[in-house]
Write a structure and sequence with these properties.
InterPro entries: Bact_solute-bind_prot3, Solute-binding_3/MltF_N. The protein is an alpha/beta fold. Helix content is about 40%, strand content about 20%. Strands 7, 8, 9, 10, 11 and 12 form a six-stranded mixed sheet that branches.
């Protein structure tokens, strides 16, 4: 009888490790392991972060970071996973994350305290300033010059919020036109449906670079805010966040993140082989030396 009880006890001990392993994965990592796939949300025209090339392939600085995180997931799980791509916009990216449609989004998404109430964020992958782009002959050089003018931005962004607050606080009477995406906003500017397009400076340089006549446009105006871009994930998923953060730290400390930066911001890029001519800032150098997930506001 004692041998039987001991045998059962040993069987129970032997069975425990597999149960423990099953319990080790939580949140997104468990979902990816169970389904064998991950869905990446991506932007369609956030040059040079996440956008389509001429063959409709998703490319860009942030997209490369997302694929590096996928490699980190595969290493942890010990198997290849299927990568599915889902186009998103500024307005639907958080709802799609919250309802489980996408698992990770690396584009041009600002990490701030307000958004952190709805979603989780990795370590910062980029630091930007909010400025504007306008025709070099427009006579616009300062945000004060936008009073009583039609001004373009992208819907659902912090730039839209800043413009609307500026209107209310300074009585500027700007007529704000919010486009669906960055490409649409710049097209409106090109068609003279507004005097300036207000957005993150690096995105403005991206739109300028891909335009038929880059010399027509100038990025100008005093910075209205500095923001941190990060990859977005579901809120309260510490296991997945720890893995993604570790990947970004390794990329930053090894110098690979700076190589990825130079590829997309200081060299010719698709689709027109234009160069953004956007050298690494002191803020970005400091970020690569000391990665952080702290938002600016």
């Amino acid at each position: 009888m004692k041998k039987t009880i001991l045998g059962l006890a040993l069987c129970g001990l032997i069975a425990m490790p597999s149960a423990t392993i099953a319990e080790e994965l939580t949140g997104t990592l468990k979902k990816v392991n169970d389904t064998g796939s991950i869905t990446l949300g991506h932007r369609e025209s956030s040059i040079p972060y996440s956008y389509y090339d001429n063959q409709q392939n998703v490319i860009g600085y942030s997209h490369e970071v997302s694929l590096k995180i996928v490699e980190g997931i595969e290493k942890k799980l010990g198997k290849k996973i299927d990568v599915k791509l889902m186009p998103i916009t500024s307005q639907n990216r958080i709802p799609l994350m919250r309802n489980g449609t996408i698992d990770l989004e690396c584009g041009s998404t600002t990490h701030n305290k307000s958004r952190a109430q709805e979603a989780g964020f990795t370590n910062t992958i980029f630091i930007i300033n909010i400025r504007m782009i306008t025709d070099k002959d427009s006579g616009i050089s300062s945000f004060d010059d936008l009073k009583d003018k039609v001004v373009i931005t992208t819907a659902g962004t912090t730039s839209e919020r800043i413009l609307r607050n500026m209107n209310a606080e300074k009585n500027m009477n700007m007529r704000i036109q919010a486009a669906k995406d960055h490409g649409d906003a710049f097209m409106m500017l090109s068609d003279n449906r507004g005097i300036a397009y207000v957005m993150d400076d690096s995105l403005l340089y991206g739109e300028r670079a891909k335009s038929p006549n880059p010399s027509r446009w100038v990025v100008t105006g005093e910075s209205q805010d500095q923001e941190a871009y990060a990859c977005m994930m579901r809120k309260d998923d510490p296991q997945f966040k720890a893995l993604a953060d570790e990947v970004i730290v390794e990329l930053s400390k090894s110098g690979e993140m700076e190589e990825i930066y130079n590829k997309w911001f200081t060299q010719p890029i698709p689709p027109r082989n234009a160069n953004l001519e956007f050298p690494l800032s002191d803020s970005m150098r400091e970020l690569f030396k000391n990665p952080t997930d702290t938002p600016y506001q």
